[in-house]
Every structure is written in C-alpha cells, then in structure tokens.
Amino acid sequence: MSHFTLGEDQLQVQELVRRVAREKVAPRAQEIDRTAEYPQDMFDMLKELGLFLLPFPEEFGGANSMLSACVAVEEFGRVCYNTAYLLLVQWVPIGAIMAGGTEEQKKKYLPGLAAGDLRGAISLTEPQSGSDLAGLKTRAVRDGDHYVLNGNKIWCTNSGMADFVLVAARTGTGDDRGKINLFIVDTDTPGFNVGPKEDKMGARGVPSHSVYLEDCRVPATAMLGDEETGFRVAMAALNESRPIIGARAVGCAQGALDHSVAFIKDRHAFGQSIADFQGIRWMVADMETQTQAARLLVYQAAAAVDAGVRGHALGQMAAIAKCFSTDTAMKVATDAVQLFGAAGISNEYGINRYFRDAKVLQIIEGTNQIQRNIISRNVLR
Length: 381
Prior knowledge:
Its EC number is 1.3.8.10, 3.13.1.4. By secondary structure, the protein is of the alpha+beta class.
C-alpha cells in the first residue's frame, strides 16, 4: 500500500483502527448484516475511541483531517461496511453545517456530533426525485418567525436514530416554486414522522427510512444559513465529504481481496493449489491493481480537502474518486464471488456481503452516472 501522503498522524490512526477492526469489529460483521439491526455496540466503541472527532476542526477537539477520516473508514470497511457507515453518517452533516450554518447552529450541533452525543442525518431524496434535486416537492412556507414544512422523503439513512435531520425543502408560496433550502429539524418536532425501515440488499446495519412532514413547524432560525446562499454553500460542502464514500469503497474492495486470497490459498483442484493457476493469478493481479489505483485517487481527493482546495477543482477530484473507487469495489467484489465458486453464493461465507454492499456504493451519494456527468462537464467546460 502506498503511503504517498500519509503522515505520522494517519499512520497512527491506521494502526489503531486496523487492530480494533480485526479484534472487535470483524467478529460482529456477519451478524450485523444478517439481523439488519443497528449496531449500538459499534457506535459506542467508536465514540469511546474518539474516532468521530477525526474530520472536525481543532476548535471542537478534532484532528481536522479528511485524510485521517478516510484511512479510518477504509480500515473498518475492510471488515464491516456497516461500522464504517456509522462514521460516515455522523460526518455528512458536518460539512454542510460548517460551511452554511450560522454561529448559533454550529455551537448547537457540532460539539455533540464530534463527541458522539448527537446523531444527525440528511434528507434530500423524494419518491419522484433522486438525482434530480431540482424536482423536489417538499415545501417550507414562512409563517411569522417560523416555517411550516410539508412533504415526503425516502431513503433517509440514520433518521431512525438521529436527533436532527437536515431536510431539503422549497421556500416560496403560490406559483413561485422558490429556492431550495436546508432546514435543521429536530426529530422530536411535532409533525416530523419516521416511517418503517427499508429491507435493504446491502448496507443493512444502518437503517434507511421514509420521512413524513405534516405541518411540521420549525423556527426560522432552523434554516441552514441564509435563504440566498445557505443551500448552495451546504451542497458544495458535500464535495468535501465525498472522499469518505470512496474510502468505504476502497475498504470494501480490499476486504473482498483479503478474503479471496485467504480462500484460494487454502483450496486445491486438479492436484494443485487454486492460487497456482495462472488464470486465477491474473484475476488477483487485476483486483490488486484496481484497488491500489482507487486508493490513490481517494487519498488524493482527501488530501486536497485538507489543503483547502475547493470549487470545480475539488468537485472534479471528488467525483472521479467516488466513481472509480465504487466501480472498482463492484468489480473486485464480483471477481471475489467468482473465486469463491459455489461458496461465494452461500450465506455461510461473508464474501457475498461485500458484493451486496459494493452495489449500494455505486448508487448512493450521487449515482455513478451523475458523477460521470460532473466529470465530463468539467472536462468539456
């Protein structure tokens, strides 16, 4: 593995998380996936280790390092997608609140997120609009010093556990579809209702829910930032967290490769080890090459965040890293299942878990088709 930009801090994080992942997390991974129950014990462990702090600014006690965050997510992702996911869902609201929030909002929510005392979620997707954010229909109508929210959301991951959710809604009345803004809605607000959890193919340990907003009344101060720039600034901040998605994909690919190598070295056919067949060795070589390339792209994007790169330059790097790494996870996991043969489709072996989780990664946080739109638009600009 290349340490091209990993400093002493990142190497210490890597060593700690790799040991914890192997000793504490790996024995739980299959059960978390099988039961699809929220792994509170894993959340408590992450909180106790202080790992939620990694990408937070130093003023909140954090390491202020997206690269360290990606290293941690990759190492957990090698053994358990869902434990890595716990870090991600804690971190996604950070960038939006840091970039677009008021000082009051930052003081209210960020220390709790950093310490693991608060949990958040972000809700953009609706039944009729996933990638097409401009098509969302949830409305926020001003009423004095409050807004009243009405609408339905789907695939709101972590909303069943969250203390607050960043909800995207249209402002404006009548025929004026208005702007889109984010509202920080505490989940105990009357009119905010969470539906049953989805029965998902992958990413099963961190539930996703529908959210129903019925005359949900929030103070005007719940709008993230101001009406003119808050949403745009918050959305731009999602580029800063996108490398974490890529890190999860690198971890998924590396874990699938780890399992495959152990499996083929222990199996024999036609009088020799399966690992000695040239066709098998070439598959392993491709899996290793693709995983290494994905890792470098993700680390480069994360290092760019830490270096203060923003705008189109960061958006391009983040899109490339997300797209390539998640496609790599899918390809490596697919080859891993093939290497396992009939065992690969058995639930007795965890390799099909990597296959299912990898497919999820190609879809969430901006489908890879959307990432390709971003990449090509920047190239052709």
